Amino acid sequence: MAEKNIVIVGAGFGGVFAAKTLSKKLKSHKEYNIILIDKHSYFTYMTELHEVASKRVAPKHVQDSWIKKTWNISSTKIKMSSC
Asked: Which of 11, 33, 37, 70 could make an SS bond with 15 (beta carbons 3.0 to 4.6 A apart)?
């Protein structure tokens, strides 16, 4: 059977969650590849930006690497690209 690609553009909460969920649901279907595309290797917790603005939290504490969150998902390929 031919391989099928599922492309997810944007690696925010929704993109990373979709990649993880699809990977789990399609684990037994080896013909699917999940490709996650974003121009950054991190996402920002938008709900915490007010903490950075008030200098209660350092900017590095409201960003998280989505590569670390998806590296162990075997069917997910990570691509960094800007449009």
From this structure: 11
